[in-house]
Design goal:
Blueprint: H1 3-8, H2 13-20, E1 27-30, E2 33-36, H3 42-59, E3 64-68, E4 73-75, E5 81-83, E6 87-91, E7 105-111, H4 117-121, H5 123-128, E8 136-140, E9 146-151, E10 164-167, E11 172-175, E12 180-183, H6 184-187, E13 201-203
């Protein structure tokens, strides 16, 4: 199936899932459109591996577990949507939806790149917000030690204008949904990053 076909028609969830099973590359599905996943850079892959390893280590012995970007997640936005988060955390038994997609994540990490930044912050985040179990959404920068944390409010809503930013290798990112924390120094281990002003700070935009 060519990119031209992606652009010229929409697909049902069933059509997407049937077609996706035959593909060697991953594709996401949102509002009837299929989006090819871009290949990750070495920095991107290192950060994903670091997060997954640190999360797995810290969750050992609990009822929570993590998966990486080969695991589909199902959202309810505009019918059904399907995403491949870079790292996803599930607590309790995974609830499986269509196409072996998980329906009950509590936290999701996306490592952004220039080609995915707008998508991760807008359409994809909007889709994630329809997952009732999801409590935290993290956007991780590649070139700077900077992690943005979006959290569901106590009232069960998402306020996309209010989020916490963790800056610098000395900062620590709490995962409130599972009671652990990730040091930025571990997230960015073996990654060459650009120094940032106001290192090791936590900021909360109003």
């Amino acid at each position: 199936m060519s990119n031209a076909v992606f652009e010229n028609r929409t697909f049902t969830p069933a059509e997407y899932l049937t077609w996706e099973e035959t593909q060697t590359e991953r594709h996401e599905y949102l509002a009837g459109e299929i989006r090819a996943m871009s290949g990750g850079s070495m920095e991107h892959n290192t950060i994903v591996s670091n997060i997954a390893g640190e999360v797995r280590s810290r969750l050992k012995g609990t009822h929570c577990r993590s998966f990486t970007s080969t695991q589909k997640v199902q959202a309810q936005s505009t019918g059904f949507s399907f995403f491949y988060p870079d790292v996803v955390i599930v607590c309790g038994a995974p609830q499986m939806g269509l196409g072996d997609a998980i329906r009950n994540p509590v936290a999701v990490f996306e490592v952004q790149s220039p080609s995915t930044s707008h998508y991760d912050r807008n359409a994809k985040f909007t889709g994630y917000q329809t997952i009732q179990s999801l409590q935290e959404y993290f956007i991780v920068h590649q070139k700077q030690a900077r992690v943005e944390a979006y959290r569901r409010t106590p009232e069960g809503e998402w306020d996309t204008t209010s989020y916490t930013v963790y800056i610098g290798l000395g900062a620590t990112v709490p995962l409130e949904s599972v009671g652990i924390a990730l040091p930025c120094r571990e997230i960015y281990d073996l990654v060459e990053i650009t120094p940032t002003p106001n290192e090791d700070e936590e900021t909360s935009p109003s």
